[in-house]
Amino acid sequence: MIDHKTIKVWINLYLDGELAGDELEQFKQHIKECAECAKILKQQRDFVDSIRILKEEINIDFNDFKTELVKQIEKFKPKKSKTFIRSFSLVMVAIFFIGVLLTIYFYSQRTDLAAIAVENHIRQINGQLPLEIQTSSEAEISNWFDKKLKFNFRLPRYPDPSNQPYRIKGARLVALNNDYAALVSYEMDGRPMTLLVAPSKSASPHGKRKVNFKDINFYLDTRDGFNILSWTDKGLTYALVFDFENFDWKKPCIVCHSSGTKEM
Amino acid sequence: MFEKIKKEIINSIDSLLRYALAMTGNEEDAKDLVQETCYKALKNMDSLDENSNVKAWLFTIMRNLWLNQRKRNLISPIHLDETIENVSDEWNINPEELLINNEMRQLLMKALNDLPDAYKEILILRYFEDFSYSEISKILDCPLGTVMSRLNRAREKLKEAFLKIYEKK
Predict the structure, then answer these.
(1) Among the four A34, A50, A60, A66, which has the fewest Cβ within 10 Å?
(2) How many angstroms separate the CA of residue A6 from the nearest CA in chain B?
(3) B70 and chain A: CB distance < 8 Å anywhere?
(4) Best residue of A5, A54, A55, A79 to probe chain B, by most B CBs closer than 10 Å
């Protein structure tokens, strides 16, 4: 049996909606059975209700003030929080660093096309890399490569190839970074010359000397007794390997830049 | 979410004005306090989430602003250690009677206004604004037990003050 003192404490908790569970049940039971506590509950409820009535006494006319305040609140545009700005800056810095790291990774993963070109040139002249198409026609070679490569590569065509100082012997695919590169075989002044072409995202030009000509960096090098001219242009990296006598760096360029009018 | 909070701020203006008026006892000070409260709330809306109790948060802001204006110690509970004399459970006034009797209502209002601020504000939070004990403890930044004991004293003090005035009549 709950004593009256406890019930008196519980009366206020009950009226304020703060009594729950077993206590609430015990309280209700006690009030049912105890007339004295029921009377106190009624008096206290009347008192609390009287306080609540006073709420309506505060009825000063604040309408003009309220209208103006509501307008100001509705007009208010929240500024970006410092937390948001800080988070945004951190994300941007993180993106920048990831970009730098990816770029470094990308460049570090690119193959030295000059080295691969020399290797393929040696194997080609040793008969270890037979040509897959044998023709002197630029058009036939371009068509043969079509759909075999993941990049677009076409040889320039000249109206009268017989006038050129070089001769196309044929072409083939060679493996490069789990994909294929295009190898074109030439003969100039009775000497073999090969052109290896690969996408610039997987192969880069290399050479001890760098020459800038018409906004393109040409790399010149000599390895294993062969001369290598490599460069990147329009998403492709090229490497020409040759061993001409009376060596002239500009001489191999004639395979693409003949004096005749180009046909595409 | 900001629009939802703004709407809740607008819906709380009446309650804030009532509380501010009771605390300041002055219409102009009450308006300033409410305006400052709303402005501070708008600037800090991003500290809330979907489940935040916006009304209780607004009252907390307003009370802190008010305390800062009043130099905190003036409203400190340390001034509230008065004992309650001859506390009586008796309250033989019917609320319906109070509704009809304007003079009696004004006497009770006077008794409320004459209470120390700490008692007045806790009665307003509970009986004008219907905040729970838990919400009041957050607004007043005090333990739940303090809310219960202070509310108890506030009720008894109001009853005592009213009966003193009423019996003199």
Answers:
(1) A60
(2) 14
(3) no
(4) A54
**Do B115 and B161 contact (CB within 8 A), yes or no?**
yes
Q: B10 CA to chain A: closest CA distance, Å?
A: 6
For an interface test with B, the pick among A59, A76, A85 (most B C-beta atoms closer than 10 Å) comes out as: A76
DSSP string covering A7-21, please? Answer: HHHHHHHHHTT---H
For chain A, where are the E strands, in sequence order? Answer: 111-112, 133-134, 166-176, 179-188, 191-199, 203-204, 209-213, 216-223, 226-233, 236-242
**Phi, then psi, of B57 in degrees rounded to 5:** -65, -40
pLDDT in tens, B65-85: 988 887 654 555 445 544 444
Q: How many domains does chain B have?
A: 2
Is B21 within 8 Å of A8 when comparing Cβ atoms?
A: no
List the single residue in A48, A52, A62 with the smallest CB-CB distance to B17.
A62
Domain span holding position B24: 1-71
* B9 and A CB contact within 8 Å: yes
pLDDT digits (tens, 9 = 90+) for A103-127: 777 666 678 888 889 998 998 888 8
Report CA dihedral (A72, A74, A76, A80) to the nearest 10 degrees. Answer: 160
pTM of the model: 0.55
**Do B48 and B104 lie in a common domain?**
no
ipTM above 0.85, yes or no: no
Q: Which of A193, A166, A185, A163 is nearest to A260 (CA)?
A: A163
The correct CATH number of A113-255 out of 3.30.160, 3.30.1150, 3.30.1460, 3.40.1000 is: 3.40.1000
Q: Which of B56, B75, B72 is nearest to B125 (CA)?
A: B56
Asked if B100 reaches chain A (Cβ–Cβ under 8 Å), the answer is no
8 Å CB contact of B42 and A12: no
**Average pLDDT of span B15-31:** 87
Determine whether the interchain pair B155/A48 forms a contact, defined as Cβ–Cβ distance below 8 Å.
yes
Same domain, B97 and B18: no
